[in-house]
Automatic annotation (TrEMBL):
Pfam families: Hist_deacetyl
GO biological process: epigenetic regulation of gene expression
PANTHER family: HISTONE DEACETYLASE HDAC1 (PTHR10625:SF10), HISTONE DEACETYLASE HDAC1-RELATED (PTHR10625)
Gene3D superfamilies: Histone deacetylase domain
Gene that encodes it: hdaH
Organism ancestry: Bacteria, Pseudomonadati, Planctomycetota, Planctomycetia, Pirellulales
Protein name as annotated: Histone deacetylase-like amidohydrolase
Known EC number: 3.5.1.-
Family: Belongs to the histone deacetylase family.
Source species of the chain: Botrimarina hoheduenensis
InterPro entries: HDACs, His_deacetylse_dom, His_deacetylse_dom_sf, Ureohydrolase_dom_sf
This protein's UniProt keywords: Hydrolase
Amino acid sequence: MTLLYYSPHFLQHDTGGHPERPQRLEQVIGRLERGGQLARCVRPDWRPATDDQVLSLHEPQHLTTLRTLAAAGGGRAEVDTVVSPASFEVALLAAGAACDAVDRVIRGEASRALCLVRPPGHHALPGGAMGFCLLGNVAIAAEHALQLGLDRVLIIDWDVHHGNGTQAMFYENPRVGFLSMHRYPFYPGTGSADETGSGDGLGWNVNLPVAMGVSRDRCTSWLGREVETLADKLRPQLVLLSCGFDAHREDPIGSLGWETEDFSTLTQIAMDVAATHCDGRLVSVLEGGYNPPVLADAVATHLDDLLERDADERLADPA
């Protein structure tokens, strides 16, 4: 079965007219309700991430800064990133969803989980917010998996922007493989192909920079080959997705000319790798996507694929 994490509290991260705004999730949830996908998922309760979980990767001063800014009524954590009075608690709830999903998938309660959270996380640096992101949701979840006893975790990031924060947190760590396909050159300016890790982490960081205009088929086939290569070398026990949808051709911030069906192809690639190496264990966490109706359709397609894999597995093993 597939677990789905969503809370109305995520709407309390009030960013005004900012592109990363509550309407993104409102439209997603409305679309999933109309399409019947919500009724087909298990909806767990969960707790916010603890300070210890967050501090496993973030610096203490970062938490202090976010708490202080929220308590003072909010403002800009940095030029692109808005904090409202509720934002820090909402960010903890988002990171907590990813960690709880990891807990349950590792325990075998489900094979897959989708965390429809905000704010997003893959730009958040150890010492600061960046690019709409307050806390590194996927990175915190990966570290949590290691703390639970896993030895190897694979993170796949197909958001149109490079996941520089996630990369920074695991750049020297051989236990976490990180693969990012992203538009390049583009914000945040990182993610060149020669950024491959350092120290013990050398070779476990893979960037697939894509110039605007590269064909969709070339992108998906390249990602598929590189994910399989990295996974065969790493042999992950869990796959995490930084699941952004802003490479869609109608996204106002990103775009690589992709169509909604391309995200279905990528979802199948990720699920196949998880099936090969870790009994299907996969946790997907929402990142970008800033055209709300398009985002809603893309998320619905992604979730349909996760649910279809559930159905296929039940047919294969009816017991």
